[in-house]
Amino acid sequence: MRYCIIVLLTFLFLSTVSAQTFTQFVQRLETLSPAQRTGAVEKFFSANHNIPIIEQDSLLHFVFYGKAGSVSVNGNLQHWNTPDSMKRMECGDSTFFYRTFVAPSNARLDYQMIVDGNYQLDPRNPHHTPSGFGTHSEVRMPKFIASPYLAIRTDIPHGTIDSLGPFMNIPSPLCRYLPAARVIKVYKPAGYDTLSNLSSIYIHDGIEAIDFACVPIIIDNLIAEKKIQPIIAVFIPPVHRYDEYFGKMKDRYVKYLSEGLVPLIDHLYRTEPTSQKRAMIGISDGAYFSLHAVLSRPDIFQNVGGQSTTITPLLIDLTKKQSNTNKISPQLKIYLDCGRFDIKENDNFNFLEMNKNYSALLSSLRIPHYFKEVNDGHEWASWRERMPGMFIYFFGRYQ
């Protein structure tokens, strides 16, 4: 009988703890002495396993409990600029830290904690995601809907990936200094030997697109569900990323792709060698280069996609020039997207505003395009969620 009473009282206590709001919990902690807070915090965590804590669809509470002098949070909500310090409350030998934000109810957010000056994952959040800048903690707000095309399926046929690289046997790091030394990956759809006249897509930051954006998995799933035609995907890693995408090697790189790589792919694979059947996509600086290359060589590419595109005056001038000289075909298809929590250093360097302004420029020039703003940031976990829509935009079976 006594045991049953203890179990009942424990259940009632935990129900009360879980029922109270986070604000009410913090207010209660403030009424307790530091020694009393330890037990209250531990009981609170025993009743609340989902960290960060989300309430009312948009209240997002970051918490940390342990031995630390200071804790901050940095991530998409801060545009990865200035970390926000978390409020501290002494709890005996440990300290309870917390900070509350209002976030869009459908947002997907990357973040890290800074504990005594050191960046780390949130120790109580098991959800992690690769970013290209190391692993981040991830939080998905209640109304976020994940793409259904990112998971490997065992019930569908899968494509294969070839490796192309004329200098594959030259040891590193020497190979990095050879212009043609990059190892290019080529995705072939299932049943490739029975197919012909395939569309092709050229993807910059190609290895990261495979590792972090799951692009071969996405293509497999889209083809299996008949959302897109079977396609060839060419994954191109940079060798000198800044110089190739932005700097002194940019025009030479356009020439390499247009007059070297594209003819090679058309020779080796069952592609349809027309500009209307080719696309080029990239993220960030790779997106800038994709737009620059496609606008420069519309004879080679008629489809281009940019995610979180770096917009520059040179790109704007090129767009205007090609439009004014009637070098932009009405068949050109442009896809753009950018996140509300993308890079934002100041009013003059705001990725979202720059992309919105570029979309407005395209509209003013009567250049058809697709632009989407999302509640996400400047990470691969953001871009991969929208890649299925971009592939459908270019290669949908009824396009």
Strand content: 25-35%
State the helical fraction.
Answer: 25-40%
Largest sheet: 8 strands, mixed
Given the helix and strand composition, which structural class is it?
Answer: alpha+beta
Shape: elongated
Supply Rg: 25 Å
CATH superfamily of the largest domain: Alpha/Beta hydrolase fold, catalytic domain
Distance between the termini: 71 Å
Count of structural domains: 2
CATH topology of the largest domain: Rossmann fold
Mean pLDDT: 91
* Tally of helical runs: 11
Can you list the strand order of the major beta sheet? Answer: 11-12-14-13-15-16-17-20
- Which oligomeric form is depicted? single chain
Topology, number of strands: 20
Polypeptide structure, described:
The chain has 399 residues and is α+β, with helices and mostly antiparallel strands. It has two domains: 18-140, Sandwich (Immunoglobulin-like), CATH 2.60.40.10; 160-395, Alpha/Beta hydrolase fold, catalytic domain (Rossmann fold), CATH 3.40.50. It contains eleven helices and 20 strands. The strands form four sheets. The chain has an eight-stranded mixed beta sheet with strand order 11-12-14-13-15-16-17-20, with helices on both faces. Strands 3, 4, 7, 8, 9 and 10 form a six-stranded antiparallel beta sheet that branches. The chain has a four-stranded antiparallel beta sheet with strand order 1-2-6-5. A hairpin with a 3-residue loop joins strand 1 and strand 2 (59-66). Helix 1 (2-19) packs across helix 3 (34-47), helix 5 (215-224) runs parallel beside helix 11 and helix 8 (285-296) runs parallel beside helix 9. The longest helix is centred in the middle third of the chain and has 19 residues, at 250-268. The termini are far apart. Mean pLDDT is 91; it is low at 1-18, 167-171 and 174-179.
